[in-house]
Amino acid sequence: MSSGCLSRLTPIKEFFRSKFIKVSDQWVTNQLTANSGISNESVYQQWLASDLKAISPVNVLPNDCNQIKVDQISQKPNKSTLNGKFAVQINSIEDISRPKVLSEADAVDEEVVSSGDEETDNGNTKLFKRTKAKPKKEVTKRGPRMLALVVSDGITECKAIEYNPIECLSPSTPIGTKLLLSGPIDIYAAVMLLNARHVTVLGGSIPLESTGSQHSLFAIRSSD
What are the RMI1 N-terminal domain coordinates in residue numbering (predicted)? Predict the structure, then answer.
């Protein structure tokens, strides 16, 4: 790398560090080699649009954040706390709230029918009412939304759930969206319990097929 590019390596890394993002020397060098005059903001936009797994990733999440830690006495999962700030990407996201099945109350229709040939004393046909019960209908409604996510720093993946509403996320949030997670974050049974104060959306997206992590979501769902 030229001396000019080398002189820009540290400032660019400092720029990312100011955003609580760690990037590798190799990846920054590749950006400068391709365009020695590239601006800090352009390098940042390249990072947002990249799959962290493919760009010389830097491990920022604890290696054991996806491992269930069990209390030796009670044999129940321990709760731990993740402190600090971590730039990650969404590898998968889905609403796993359980649908609620409700039965509509029986509705009764009344119809007036003739008794046939029977007549009253005044010669009018005798009428009577017959009731018909409508069949029950099952109405499916979802309970409160609960998003399940798999997030990754490019090396370590960790599951997370929306413990309280996070308005900046939705089931349609693009795969590869970069997030800044801010602790303290509780982790229970290897799942991060997230709420709005933990999550800042940075932006970006990547092709869906590049993550290969959809199976992890189903693991969360099947454990219910």
Answer: 16-54
